[in-house]
Design goal:
single chain; 287 residues; alpha+beta; 7-stranded mixed sheet; 3-stranded antiparallel sheet; 11 helices; 44% helix; globular
Length: 287
């Protein structure tokens, strides 16, 4: 009964997602029923080898752009790399799903900034979906599963900044590095994280966390162990080490690409993949 009541409340919150009217500078609650219905849906999506390789290239460039991370935000070279691969994977899938529902011309993203997460970039959300008289701001959030992981994590500082930027919430994804299937969940509104447990993992940078066994049925419409087995059992289309090595090569080419005509801003999902793949061979040689 408690779970049913929570789900009813979540559904109501999704139907009242906060949007921004384009003719004002203030946030207002406006009806966006088509968007609300699509954001409630959950389901599996397929990830191709090309998409994983494009993820690696973009993630490597993102790591390099964030090389001036504050000490409390850095997790060390290996974890920084994995975190950015995870972040890019989630954003690419969110962009693809939203474009399929609302059209590529109505979805804007901020998947790579050459200056990293500083200055004006801090004012940007991951994704904006627009219609004629409204828009909604969203963040992508990805969990790439490993056997030792038990929690779904959201950085508290990033969460607070996201709320200040007017994001309605997170479009969450769970997958396994290099595997062909991921699960996209329903919109997680910002207010839902108010009850998540804050935890310091030793970096003096608190994460909000919730057990995956609780998140899976409420957000991804599946029991956790069944969902984990399904995702881990899907085909492996790219080796994890290949993805990480390709990302390292992209890191080494950061200055070269920043000074070239390479750009991802304004590209639709298919164009993002194609553009990143054009640099993948050179990034692989640079690893």
């Amino acid at each position: 009964m408690a779970a049913a009541l929570r789900n009813a409340a979540y559904r109501a919150s999704v139907c009242q997602v906060r949007c921004t009217r384009l003719d004002t500078h203030t946030l207002r609650d406006v009806a966006a029923p088509d968007l609300s219905n699509s954001l409630w849906a959950t389901g599996d999506v397929e990830i191709s080898r090309d998409e994983w390789l494009a993820t690696a290239v973009i993630a490597g460039l993102r790591v390099a752009s964030n090389k001036a991370r504050a000490p409390h935000r850095s997790r060390g070279a290996q974890k920084n790399l994995l975190n950015d691969i995870q972040g890019v994977a989630g954003e690419l899938l969110a962009i693809r799903v939203l474009e399929s529902q609302h059209g590529a011309g109505n979805v804007e993203h901020a998947i790579l900034h050459w200056s990293g997460g500083t200055g004006e970039v801090q004012e940007k959300v991951d994704i904006v979906v627009r219609d004629d008289d409204w828009s909604i701001r969203l963040e992508g959030k990805c969990h790439l599963d490993e056997d030792n992981k038990r929690m779904f994590l959201v950085n508290r500082t990033a969460h607070q900044r996201s709320a200040a930027r007017g994001a309605a919430g997170y479009l969450p994804v769970i997958g396994v590095l290099g595997h062909a299937t991921a699960r996209v969940g329903r919109l997680v509104a910002h207010a839902e994280l108010d009850d998540w447990e804050p935890h310091n993992y030793g970096y003096d940078d608190v994460a909000l966390r919730r057990p995956l066994r609780d998140v899976a049925p409420e957000v991804f419409a599946a029991e956790w162990e069944e969902l984990r087995a399904s995702l881990q059992g899907s085909d492996k289309v790219a080796r994890g080490e290949t993805i990480k090595d390709l990302a390292r090569g992209a890191m080494r080419r950061f200055e070269e690409l920043r000074g070239s005509s390479f750009e991802l801003a304004g590209l639709a999902h298919a164009e993002l993949i194609e553009r990143a793949l054009t640099e993948s061979r050179a990034c692989w040689r640079a690893r």
